[in-house]
Amino acid sequence: MTMQKQDQVDKKLSDMPDETGHFGQYGGIFVPETLMEPLKELKEAYIHYFQEPDFLAELDSDLANYVGRPSPLYYAERWSLELGGAKIYLKREDLNHTGAHKVNNTIGQMLLAKRMGKTRIIAETGAGQHGVATATVAARLGLECVVYMGAEDIQRQALNVYRMKLLGARVVSVGSGSRTLKDALNEAMRDWVTNIDNTFYIIGTAAGPHPYPAMVRDFQAIIGREAKQQIMVHEGRMPDALVACIGGGSNAIGLFYPFVDDMDVSMYGVEAAGHGLETGEHAAPLCAGKPGVLHGNRTYLMEDRHGQIIPTHSVSAGLDYPGVGPEHSWLKDIGRANYVAVSDEEALKGFHDLTLTEGIMPALESSHAIAYVTKLAPTMDKEQIIIMNLSGRGDKDIHTVATLDGIEF
Amino acid sequence: MSRIKSCFAQLKENKRKALVPYVAAGDPNPEITLDLMHAMVQAGADIIELGVPFSDPMADGPVIQKASERALIYGTSLTDVLSVIKQFRETNDSTPIVLMGYLNPIEVMGYEVFAKAASESGVDGVLTVDIPPEEAQVYIPALKQYELDPIFLLSPTTTKERMKLICHYASGFIYYVAVKGVTGTSALDTIEVASRLEMIKEVTDLPIGVGFGIKNAATAVAVGQVSDAVVVGSALVNLVEQNAHALSNAEGNKKIIKEISQVLVSMRSALDA
Ligand SMILES: Cc1ncc(COP(=O)(O)O)c(C=O)c1O
Q: For chain B, how many structural domains are there in total?
């Protein structure tokens, strides 16, 4: 850890990843040979178009007119006063078209797909938010769209499955392995290997082989860039802390990245502790896992002592993933960001807290960030500022919440 | 000389093609693997490719995915696989064994610890599907230090430039993946394969094996005309699946061994004809 810090004395943290897609020992490209060339083409396209004015102008215009950006930075006054500590600002990604931050990334990757001449779009999804965001942009461009989703998640997120179908996507149920997000990702990779000539794979989080972690981050970094400008307008100064939930880590890295070189801003990534870290039934690789290789990159994973990936649990389908984006693994090891975990129960309480105090119904994923803010804010001064990423809205989760509260419709 | 090298040298002398069956270790139960390995040699296998079960077999089609799942019900680990090979070596010191699997179990064991243990157990080559040479700068020397051959895949999307890079690091043989797709895919185009192999032969003198999509004696012969080795996997694992739920393991295992042997015998005689 200290050695890495030494190495980076005159390099900015935001300069990562390196040329080969590594964040320290994390990241990289660990895929079957067939995908090496397509990933190289993707990397070249991503590097090229991120500097091309036409592409960037189209992206900006879509984000403004289709997604509805910038999303507000809202001062949650009543909630802040109730907690009695720092002032809490919510970055309202829940107000985006389709109801979560996921669309920032799908808009961007879809524009790349179009320029690369791909006619078929595939995606994996857990909560269904990324699947919906992908199906949405595919519908807009009239492209064929196939979404892979774990059989278990299809049950938990029936509403989003129907939304994807309405949008013209084909939802493929994945019955292998643990029948959740990780298996959906495996299946999407298999599809990609088979159909690379015409297919673009839109990965929904800042994980996967290079260039995905960097590319997804760069599309999501609009969250942090806006927040930085907005907080200057509201408060005339930088925030003290950033808080975001971590599934694969895309909404968190989107908020964190533009602040990563601002060493006075502390960062908290909140993982899902499920039934509790001590029970082993959780989805918190950064808090309780070990480094390994899965889904094309080296990162913290939940694995057994033989290197098999173990089942995860979270009340929130979008956090139910045994890995995490490699940049977070690196930020953890160098000590730049803090990673914590909150339980299903705490997250549910967070869901109700925000709904009752602010009239904002959050996604269960985002409710994990809320639960941590309720612990963090009271430990801070009233002059201090927290920006929390409200990554999505809770409509899709009402059924789950009702069931857990013992209510039947 | 390594077992793989002398195997191919001998085959070349006899103008024969290597028949390389793939089965997953521990599939459908741990008792079968040792007997199955010996039976496959009896039936004409020249090299055995032994799959190491992994929870997330990203490059495999449904047939081999399920093989992994069956083996993992019994918790078949990399250590277990090595100990079966050690037992196999008690009575067979000549048939080369190639491990085929994914990186994470090796990563967790540690490259050097793994290489030492694999070598001591009698493994000859290691094919790790998800580590390209670019990421293998610690992995390759660890294998070579213990005289294990790093086997790499080439695919229809591999450019000539990459072929050179990969062949530079590979030893033992080159494994050409005949289709864009996962294991068990059907449509193998022998003309396309032939022209690809011409290209590969321009950059390496290593023997070339072809796999993914070899279903029966006819495809084996067609591929054998242009390659040095034919790898057959899903077609055999399918037979495991069909018999995995027999009344008793002992009964099922006997049937599986018999059926796999029959397929290999027919491929062997077709290849040698
Ligand atoms: C609303 C919401 N927040 C967060 C996540 C977690 O993903 P990530 O960590 O990539 O932001 C999801 C995933 O589905 C989501 O739908």
A: 1
